[in-house]
Design goal:
Pfam families: HTH_1, LysR_substrate. With about 300 residues, this protein is α/β, with parallel strands linked by helices. It folds into 3 domains: about 5-90, Arc Repressor Mutant, subunit A; about 95-160 and about 270-295, Periplasmic binding protein-like II (D-Maltodextrin-Binding Protein, domain 2, 3-Layer(aba) Sandwich); about 165-265, 3-Layer(aba) Sandwich (D-Maltodextrin-Binding Protein, domain 2), CATH 3.40.190. Helices cover about 45% and strands about 20% of the residues. The protein contains 11 helices and 11 strands. The chain has helices at about 5-15, 20-25, 30-45, 60-90, 110-120, 130-140, 185-190, 220-230, 240, 245-250, 280-295; strands at about 50, 60, 95-100, 125-130, 145-150, 160-175, 195, 215, 235, 250-255, 265-270. The strands form 2 sheets. Strands 3, 4, 5, 6, 7, 8, 9, 10 and 11 form a 9-stranded mixed beta sheet that branches. It has a two-stranded antiparallel ribbon with strand order 1-2. The longest helix has 28 residues, at about 60-90. The protein starts with a helix and ends with a helix.
């Protein structure tokens, strides 16, 4: 069986217009070419698609059943061609983007929607991970882009463009002993268990670790649940509380005697210089840079 796209287009047009001659006019072909294409299609399928009795051919039950599938098949064939063309132009076969756990509550999906609009055939995979793991994924090429907080020390192979600024705050359950204090000292923070979002690799020291004793988790949702259960204090995104009034009511922001209890960080789009980036990744980096330049 050797069916091509042109045959399917002719078959679809004949079914829609009900006439070989009308289909020929719409497609810019001579009627004999349309008739021959349908005849060859019938031979390839070993089916009679039209009864040729009377002035106009009448579709058979088999033709009607196949017609229902033809539109979707043509759409898929066009998508396949577009994908092949995009790949030949440098589009990556898939794009892995890692989002640091604390940033899942920020407005990051707008960038994914932009990629989908411009590269509709692109396979996009979103992974959530702690900051340290996100950085490792870039270095070992398991992710091409990352949305991360600014780093104290930059890897020499790392390149980035700043997206925006985000705030994270120290919080504790309203039922926790620390909630009874109007202000909490740094020593009190050190001596109470901290719930810290950290890499699953226990050899990597967590960022934003203040306490001498701590429990680790790899995402802010489980951190919030542990904090609500009075198992420790922790640092969560301010936007997470703003979007969840119930959570905000059950948590208290720690007022610290020694420094301001708000940690403002830049959020960066990060990639590795050593990895060859495809068209979609380069497009997003270029878009973010243009955004920054337009707001300066």
């Amino acid at each position: 069986m050797n069916i091509n796209q042109d045959q399917l287009v002719i078959f679809k047009t004949v079914m829609e217009l009900g006439s070989f001659s009308a289909a020929a006019r719409q497609l810019g072909k001579v009627p004999s070419a349309v008739s021959m294409s349908i005849a060859n299609l019938e031979i390839d399928l070993n089916l009679q698609l039209f009864d040729r009795v009377g002035r106009e051919p009448r579709p058979t039950a088999q033709a009607i059943a196949l017609f229902e599938k033809t539109e979707q098949l043509l759409v898929e064939m066009n998508q396949w061609k577009q994908q092949a063309f995009a790949l030949s132009e440098g589009l990556e076969s898939s794009l892995n983007i890692v989002v640091v756990s604390e940033l899942l509550h920020t407005q990051w999906t707008e960038y994914i929607a932009l990629l989908e609009k411009n590269f509709p055939q692109l396979q996009i995979n979103i992974i959530s991970a702690p900051q340290e793991d996100a950085q490792n994924m870039l270095m070992n090429s398991s992710a091409q882009l990352a949305l991360m907080f600014e780093r104290e020390f930059l890897d020499t192979s790392e390149q980035f463009v700043e997206l925006k600024r985000e705030t994270i705050i120290p919080v504790v359950s309203t039922q926790h002993p620390l909630a009874d204090f109007e202000q909490v000292s740094f020593e009190q923070m050190q001596n109470n268990r901290q719930i810290v979002i950290a890499s699953r690799d226990k050899s990597i020291k967590p960022e934003l670790l203040f306490s001498k004793k701590y429990w680790r988790t790899d995402n802010h949702h489980s951190a919030a649940m542990l904090i609500l259960a009075n198992l420790g204090w922790g640092i969560l995104p301010l936007q997470m509380l703003e979007e969840n009034p119930d959570l905000k009511q059950k948590l208290k922001v720690l007022q610290l005697t020694d420094f301001t209890p708000r940690f403002e960080y830049s959020v960066d789009l990060v990639w590795s210089r050593e990895n060859k980036l495809g068209a979609a990744a380069r497009f997003l980096i270029h878009h973010v840079r243009n955004q920054r330049n337009s707001t300066k």
